[in-house]
Design brief:
single chain; alpha+beta; Thiol Ester Dehydrase, Chain A; five-stranded antiparallel β-sheet; 28% strand
């Protein structure tokens, strides 16, 4: 599997899900909404493990989600996650659906941005203990995608500019 297991970071999470009929579309494969739920749950578990008990995270944005292969009902999927970026009150978790039997490429991957908030829902700084693990062949494609996405201004700036322009 292209050496995906080499040098697994301590902060990496691994989750498993059985694709059930309730998760399927009319073709008997994983429905896109269920795929998003699987990926988001793994991303949130990754972010929570990284921030520890001091974490109070909310989803800020889905930066990217790619699905490369349909997944039939009855398949047990493995999803790994790791924090790829952390700054002030924001972190990005990357998730990868490990290759299915007889395949070499991940069946899906995604990038999810989470904000650290206080009890009133206002942004605050992340705990100092967040570990970033962005090395290794499993994570390099997501790091490269995150770097490309960093050059794009967020939608909030577009909305502010539109409102100011009248």
């Amino acid at each position: 599997m292209l050496g995906y297991n080499a040098g697994m970071p301590a902060s990496e999470i691994t989750s498993h899900r059985l694709v059930l009929p309730a998760d399927a579309n009319h073709y008997g494969t994983l429905y896109a909404g269920s795929l998003l739920r699987y990926a988001l749950e793994s991303g949130y578990a990754t972010a929570c493990r990284a921030t520890g008990p001091a974490g109070n995270l909310v989803l800020r944005r889905v930066l990217s989600l790619e699905c490369r292969r349909s997944v039939p009902v009855g398949t047990l999927v493995e999803i790994r996650g790791v924090v790829l970026q952390a700054r002030r009150g924001y972190l990005v978790a990357g998730v990868v659906g490990m290759p299915l039997a007889d395949h070499t490429l991940p069946w899906m991957d995604g990038l999810f941005g989470f904000a650290q908030v206080d009890g009133a829902g206002l942004p605050v700084s992340l705990p100092d203990t967040v570990e970033i693990a962005a090395d290794g062949p499993l994570w390099r494609p997501l790091v490269a995608r995150l770097d490309k996405l960093a050059a794009i201004r967020g939608a909030t700036g577009d909305w502010i500019e539109a409102l100011e322009a009248g």
